[in-house]
Fold:
Amino acid sequence: MKEPGNVKEESTQELQPVEHSMRAVYTIEAIADLAQVPRRLIILYCKHGLVVPASKLPDSGWYFDDRAIHAVRRIENLRNACGMNLMGIKLMMDLMKEVERLREEVRFFHRQ
Amino acid sequence: MPVEFKDYYKTLNVPREASNEDIKKAFRKLARQYHPDVAKDKKAAEEKFKEINEAYEVLGDPENRKKYDELGSNWRDGTDFQPPPGWQQGRARGAPFSEGSFEFRFDGTGFSDFFEQFFGRSGRFDGFSGFDHRQEYGDGEAGFARRGSDLESDILVTLEEASKGSVRVLTLRRTNRKTGQARTQTIKVKIPSGVIDGQIIRVPGMGNEGIGGGAPGDLYLRIRFAAHPDFRVRGADLYYSLDLAPWEAVLGTRVVISTLQDRVSVKIPPGANNGQQLRVRGRGLVNGQSGEKGDLFVVINIVVPEKVTEEERELWNSLSRVSHFNPRNS
Structure:
């Protein structure tokens, strides 16, 4: 790749994630804020099974993890960039999951 | 964006017409030699191991190998590569991450640009990451804030890293296509112990910049396990193929197997059949999400000697005379 001749600005950002990341859970308000998607849409996605809460406690409501944020962001991309409706998105996400699973199986057996 | 061509046959040191079995053997031999856990010069070995792994990802999968062979054999290792016509659209996805006006390039994920472009998983579902139509069409600039789009990339992780955890240093370089301005960010990402293949690690705020003061997007790193010379992985379970002589399978035996943590002595019961799986509990990977430990499955693989001495032949002959066993009539 060619080095661009113009200004090169260097910045270093050190992150100390991720310990929280695997087990961290967020309230619906928190993931609405993190993913920049309205709360009512997240509820709608949950109702359609597109996003699955990490836990669903009867008293304290829904909690979500990083996978849910990723799913919400994907749905947003499908809606905005591909112009898909919820039915289409559901079909697409299920197919993607299935393709990933099958690819993993194929890889597993090829390595036998 | 041109990428450096990778000669995967050269990396694995096999001829282009090598069989799948030859490729597997070549990988195992090299992977044992350069595995970061066993090599003396760890840093150099790690680089070499990544190359070997990448070559095996492509050549070890018949579909990927076919695709690779179609790309052409005239390219030399390390030269700037332009794919033949027809690859640019549809199959290849342009630069590793090309979004409207920006180009993204990662270093430290364990995969080369060449691999990312033609064989990377993150490129397979084009349109999910690094593309924002609002930017393409220029809306969103009319005064209100929009969150930046996300980036996705695979990150190569060895099984040892997955069980012990590690800290990886990634560099992400964003180049503005119009102005040529580049910005390089170095990110330290902690790979927690207990990650499993396919798991997503979210790095907040490292995606594309927001518009009109909007928050930046996130970077999603998808864990991809490096192929291991001895183990195959399914979820948190490990699979080990154990070669046995026919008489060992019939009479039973005891074999010592090196797991990721220790050495275990496994008792093979008499009459073990080809493909049979023996479970060694708790010697798999830790699944960090459930906290449970996977198992190690020993898969029996009976190997028949290719050459036999006169004496051996005589013994097999006497066995065939006295045995009532008929595998086609059971």
Notes: Residues 88-98, 123-141 of chain B have pLDDT under 50 and may be disordered.
